[in-house]
Structures are given as C-alpha cells and as structure tokens.
Amino acid sequence: PGTLVFGSPNFFVAEDGTAFAQISVLRENGSSGEVSVTLLIRDGTAMAPGDFDPTPIEVTFADGETEQIVEVPIVDDLLVEPPETVFLELTNPTNGAMLGDRDEATLTIDRSDLPNLLTFEGIDNLTSVGDFYGDRGIFFSDNALGILSACGLKKSGMTDGFGGNFENAPSGVTALTYGSGDSIVLNAPEGFNGQLALSYASPFFDHTVTVYDGLDGTGNVLATFALDRTDPSPFPQAYNNFETAVLSFSGVARSASIGSVANKLLLDDIILG
What we know:
By secondary structure, the chain is an all-beta fold. The chain contains 1 helix and 18 strands.
C-alpha cells in the first residue's frame, strides 16, 4: 500500500490574497489499492481561526496514485504581522499504509501584507488617532493627534483653526503630531519586522525613535534612531520641509516611541516592515 509522507519538511504561502496553501503529500514504496491519511493543522505562531482553518483534511490516494496536493485554507487579513508558522502532521493511515519519517512539516505564512503605509488622511484636525488603524492591528497612544495643513484647513473652512503651519503633508493634507507627553507610542500587538520608516518635520528640536519588542515602549530595545532637525521655512509655515528616516532592526517589534518634545514634531507616511 505504501508509505505516506510530506513532499517537503517546509511549505510557504504568501498572504497576498491567496486563499489556499498547497501541501504535497507523497505515497512512496508502493501504490496498490486505495489508502487515506488525515492531515492535522495546528497552531504555531499563526493562530486559528484568525490565520487559517484548522479543520483536519482527509487525503485519499486511489489505486496507483503517488501524490496528492492538499489545499489548506489561509485567512488573508489586514493585520500588520511578521511571518507566522503552522504545524502540519499526518496521522491515521488506512488500509495497510504506513507513515514515513516525514510525517510532520511546517507551513510558513509570509508577511506579504507588509509594508503597511499609514497616511493619517481622513482624521479630523486635532482629533485623536487612537484606533483609526485598528483594523490593521495598529494603535496609537492617547496623545497622538491628527493635524491639518494650511490647505486642509482651507478646504474644511477652518480658516482660524489651530494647525496649518505647513502647506501640505507628503500624503496629502493630514499629518500626525502630539500635544502632551514626551513621545507618541505606536503599538502593533501582532508584531512587525524589518524596518520602520517615516516622514517628519521638526525645525526646532531633535527627536528620537526607539523600537521595542514589547507593547507600550517596554521590553528589549531593538533599535534607536535620532531625528535631526529639518530645515525651517518662513513663518507661519515653518514645518513645510519633511525628510524621510528609515530605521532597520532585527527581531519582531511590537511598539515604537517617537518624539522628545510635544507640539514640535510632525509625522507622516509611517511604514511598518
């Protein structure tokens, strides 16, 4: 009847809208008669049902068949997260078939939903950002505020509103700032890896970006980076000149603190991963 094994110890799938991971199961050392085996799908760093369907799959080989391609359902979400793993196992062979040495395998769901761009467009002037990007698993500290450019204030009819000391942000008419505390904290509970990039304007103070492996700016420091002062423009639009900073790091980050002095920093186009 044969020996049933995985075609590889490692399988990969991109989280890019792909609905299924394709898993090869082989029948070696014999192919006579019909046999079957059950494929178990278990949590690794990926968790069911949010990342995959854990329903066991029965794999059947007809007489003479030596390979089956099994489709494991994958959930494509918007969450910012690093590559995640799923554990696969073959069990319960039937009709005299046996399990071979490769009866376990790992499926890696790649992080192709990253990089994730945060533009802050759609947030009202001096309104809390909070969970505006909660559907992506990204949350900001209570002091993080959207702020409209001069162009944005004019379009909204707020000609005497606070803000407007920049003509436009890189993403459009909205940037990110904070009015209290030492820094903004960005939380991504599922984690992100590789890099944190952002555009910023700060003509009067230097600031610092620090990336942590814990939430709320706790745990191990994965990397830190100085945001030097940007060139000032004439008042009242002193924050016109945005520059780009990229902070690379190893490991999985779950939070970042950005800033040093309240009301003296504009951020835009934050990219995770």
